[in-house]
Amino acid sequence: MAYPDALRTHAADTVATALRDLSPGDVVLGVAVRDAIPRGHKLALARHSVGEPVIKFGHPIGRAIREIMPGAHVHTHNLATALGGEAQYAGSARASAMHSNGLVRTWEGYSREDGSAGTRNEIWILPTVGCVARTAQKIAARAHALKPDGIDGIYALVHPFGCSQLGADLDGTRAILAALAQHPNAAGVLLVGLGCESNQLDALIERIPREGRSRVRSVAAQAVSDELSDGVAAALELAAEAATARRTPLGLDRLVLGLKCGGSDGLSGLTANPLVGRMADAVTGAGGSAILTEIPEIFGAEQLLMARAADRAVFDAIGALVNRFKRHFLDHGEPVSENPSPGNLAGGITTLEEKSLGAVQKGGQAVVTDVVDYGGRARQRGLTLLEAPGNDAVSSTALSAAGAGVILFTTGRGTPLGFPAPTLKIASNSDLARRKPGWIDFDAGMVLDADMDIAAEALLDQIIAIASGEPTAAERNDEREIAIWKRGVTL
Length: 491
Fold this sequence. Notes:
The chain is an alpha/beta fold and 491 residues long. The chain has three domains: 6-80, Archaeosine Trna-guanine Transglycosylase, Chain: A, domain 4; 122-242, Succinyl-CoA synthetase domains (Rossmann fold), CATH 3.40.50.261; 250-476. Helix content is 28%, strand content 19%. It has 13 helices and 23 strands. The strands form six sheets. Strands 19-20-18-17-21-22-23 form a seven-stranded parallel beta sheet, sandwiched between helices. Strands 1-2-5-8 form a four-stranded antiparallel beta sheet, with no helix packed on it. Strands 13-12-14-15 form a four-stranded parallel beta sheet, with helices on one face. The longest helix is centred in the middle third of the chain and has 20 residues, at 312-331. The radius of gyration is 23 Å and the shape is globular.
């Protein structure tokens, strides 16, 4: 179906989102446009007095800070957040059964001994500390050039941390690296240490479950005469062992999706994010898993997730995680509502409430079955809420470490970044998809011109192809990074 010049998402909404640039004098949804309104920005459908809530997605996205007349442009000049600090949450979990929307598929993946399933058959090289990051990269480059058939690649995932860290900050670095070492896409893992760092090799290996250590090797650079030769030999030994693995048909119950948005615009909550929500419903409804993170980007919308909690314990854990994250902001003297970036604002998003109400749509209607701390791994089928900030690289690394086999990354502005798990870039608007075909894998702007069911079928086909081995744009561009959440002092 074709949509009008602006879209009202809910009957209660007092604003609509412009689907094209609007000019004064245009008549849209029965309202005469007063101001020039860029695509993705908001058009007032009703008069708002000062202090009155502005409604989008059926919920308040802030309060008017000056009178807003019908037809006016609604943005930072007349709308401000109403978010405060920590909250007391009332209510209870009202989870309903998960459903698949009839989207049933199989994919070709690698079954691992621990019951997980990989979308790639790779060797990962992880440095314990930034001092040997270049060493890890050199080992990976040499070993990749010699890799046997059956190995998709040998890659170094480097970072600047692992030393001069203390307490929980060091533990977070260790946790994320240990979780990455257990990822099903890593058929073998080489840990490269220096020897004198805070993040000692032995302590890192202890964080990896005993049953997973058979596919882990390590090199301590200070303890050997030629760490490059030893590292290449260890990586190729792992590759030889892993090269015999073969893809086999698997159901959606064996797939784990990571759900992420970055560089959002005013269309993200109308096109790409609801479409990804369909994918979360399809996979969780089939018995698989999806992981949602970016906790600051659910502020103001957390009760929508709490209402779908599997039980009271999950309900309380969601509230506790949100309050803990808000306290993290407040303890550093920062407001909890400062999240929308310059790119978000330019794209039409005004407040964090608006951004959050659009962002949580990536979770569809799936039941929230678990809440996991940063560096943790998804443990339950259904939708897992994972502790991590909104930063694209940090949160996508956390999604990979938690076990995501494919990351669905929606964007209205575009980014070339890629992460350890195949990262499928989904444009919220067709203009971005046309301008950046080297970055974008799927155009969710088609939602505005086609039935949502048709778009969902097409996106699920693309996910299946990528999970089964087709490279993403980021993989073709050799974009593969990790970033670790730094939370403490540096010695």
